[in-house]
Fold:
Amino acid sequence: MPKQTVATTERETPEQERTSVAVSSGGTATLHTWRNIRLIIGREYKNQVTQRIFIIMSIILLAIVFLATFIPTIAQFFSSRSSAQTSIVVVNDAGSVAGMNDTELSAYIGTALNGTTGTQAAGNPAFALTFSTTNALPDLQNQLKNGKLDILLVLARATNQDMRFTYDTSASATNDTNLPTIQGLTQLLTFLDTAHRLGLTSQETQRLSAAPDVTVVYTQQSQNTRPDSEITAEILLAVAGCILIFISINVYAGRVAVGVAEEKSSRVMELLLNAATPLQLMVGKIVGIGAAGLTQMAGLVAVGIGALLLQFPIQAALFGTSAGGLSQYLISVSVPFYLLFLVYFLLGFFLYATIYAGLGSMVKRQDEVQSAIMLPILLLTSGYVLIFLAVQSPDATWVRVLSFIPFWTPTLMLVRIAAGTVYWWDIALSIVLMLVTICACAWFSARIYRFGVLMYGQKPSFGQLLKLARMN
Amino acid sequence: MSLTVEHINKSFAHVQAIKDLSMEVQEGAIFGFLGANGAGKTTTMRMILDILRPDSGSITWNGQDVREVPRRNWGYLPEERGLYPKMRVDEQLLFLARLNGLSKQAAEKELTDWLERFQISANRKKKIEELSKGNQQKVQFLATILHDPTILVMDEPFSGLDPVNANVLKEAFLEMHRRGKTILFSTHQLEQAEELCQDIVIINQGQSVVAGSVREVKRQYGRNVARLKLDNDPEVSWLEQLPGVQVTKRREDYIEMQIQVNFNPNEIVEAALQHGGVISRFELTEPSLTDIFIEKVGVASEPVAPSSVLSA
Structure:
């Protein structure tokens, strides 16, 4: 009996110790814990935002975002300003086409090329149409060569009276934007002319060319719940969001790793460990740097939205129309999408930052950080690359499966939400999985942090890491 | 009222860094913690500060486990000096003092006082990396004491300082002692330990080899030291033949020997006169801590702690 008692006591010792650890970091010292974490967050935040590189980068990024929002407006401005009128000369050698004389034909072609007159609110019609005669052909050919004329279209008839068109253009073969329009026009004229020659009345011709009456029914309900414009907008934003997530996790989580290595190599760590626990240090650092990152992002988003809103009055002033392009996309996207974007961004940051912090504590010098965080960087990059495949088949099984793997959830889930079909439990499950993984990584990282930060020898193997994590 | 270390053990991987180490630091005392490189001094200090945990044994402050003692009672000066190189002196010290439990106002007041006393007020707004080494050490010292801790644990506080700066720090060190702080410090400079400490412990390979008050340690050593110089016989070849006398050093201006406590030093003088020697110097002294240290730890004592990752 006594023997047994001794054995039990001995076995209990480590457990008691563990409990006391838990108590000292969570029970009696709760007040200190929050105070310490707050102080560390404050230091990390200030340290980040007062760094010259942070300020310079912020200014550059703000400038880029600001200018980028102006691109659609600027493009629209230039395309409307440039006299993009195409001069076209039609030479009719075919006589009456579809029963129309030259005047009627000229009016018809003008409408076909420029659309119904009056719909173009501002500016000139796209095509400046003139009729000419066969005599002028050599002169017109010359004008084509020296660029005074863009298009020369000659209408003629083959021996069997079918229409024949010759299309001369000053544009190069690779850059001929007018060809489809002219082809459409010639098709139309040939159709009308043939119908006329076959003796059909204009009503008969119209019936012949009427659009087929087709009713489209989508039996899959979910496909129909959101308007197309919203899906397009969300895909666009999801891809932009993924790029943002990729870059910012890389930058800010990377700063966490560098920060830990910095404290270690400057040996301030030992002082800190005397005043705070490794978990406090880690959490404080991650949240502090994350907050600095969010500040930068919030600044970018605020400037971006502000500049976009600025486009409305500018575009209204320039073109007399309301804004189009990106601004419309931003408005048509639903609020839950933005919220989920924020959630996945934060979860992704915390996941990678926790891992980076643990790995950062293992290195001796700052220059070793990059190689230490190689593996998570690969994971992050693959999750980023995958979105370009996933966006094409967002409901494919492999996308669904991979989107539940926490390292890829932030990017892939965002694409699925935007482009595919997602149920609420998909989102819930992915968030829960991420939270669980973050907790596991935080636990593991805090353990190796405790030992890693006092370690200045060679790098331990993964097996040793696991052993460290199990140690008290 | 004391800091008590009882039978602590600590192993890293396969190496036992600390073996059954016990010591007691009286409240308000200056305690010297001596040992060769790698003897386990830093590891022990980290365990006292609860940065590391012993595998077995207990460390208590006034009967309370050190883990339960509020952090602000501890002041730590690590051997590997370290502060944030790019952070301003005042921000840095305020951050550390507040992290150690001081209020913002109290921290600022203390900071101003101490910067004044150390004559580095002009450096208040400078970054650490812009300071001279001596001033960095002063800031490091302030980082240890600013939050007014009860127990100071200092790892090699005076190493690498010029005499002027060493003196400034020693004054502050003694000021802390006058304020009743309990000070545990490690050093290689044994003369310093002799000068400052009431009690010492010498550890070797993680084990305590000598412990007690400085006087007691010297008495326990059981030998005295004599120095002799004969003008006409610099070799004094007969000296080794005297029973109870052991020559330890031959210097240009004297020969140093250890004599057993019960050996009458007059016999050396008599023997010298018998050999017709002209005595120009004869003195008796206590053994220095250096002698004791070298005998106990051994000149050739290699650091046993392996250069393994875990021995840091």
